[in-house]
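Table S2 (text version). Query chain:
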Amino acid sequence: MRLFVALPLDEAGIRDLVRYRQKLERLGVRGNFTRPENLHITLAFLGEQPEWKTAAEALDTVEAVPGLLRLDRLDSFGKGGILGICPTEDTPVRTLAADVEKALRTAGFSLEKRRFRAHVTLCRELKAPQGCVLPPPPAVEVPVEEIVLFLSHRPKGQLTYTPLWRKKPGASEP
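Corresponding structure-token output:
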């Protein structure tokens, strides 16, 4: 099972990003846009794992600090023409991601050694018309309300992220 840990977006944030996507599409921007229900901020990618409960036990030791994360700038990265929306100030989520990584490594998980970059992936394989200047994104405030361990799978060929475990900041395992 393919696992990752993330901060889900609330309905208002998803709605704002869907409107922004529609604006990009009206400008002729094309690509593999992330489905609204799959929008999230990845904290750690665990890859293929035989089971998920050990990860959930490790994550239960992480103390998240509730608050807001403001996504307010575009960034492109990776080899696949990835467009993301990122926070200008990412210290709180960077600290949370470091705590998640430490808890998982302590539990014996081998994680990629990749620099953490807080973002929501809006599109892969981005293709914009020549001379197109992307408009600034909306400032989306993401309440840090829970940490979620997701299963990434493809039932009927459609990429789907299914929550396996959730934790509200300051709460014990549900």
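Notes on Table S2: Residues 2-167 form a domain with the Cyclic Phosphodiesterase; Chain: A, fold (CATH 3.90.1140.10). Residues 60 and 173 are 6 Å apart (CA to CA).
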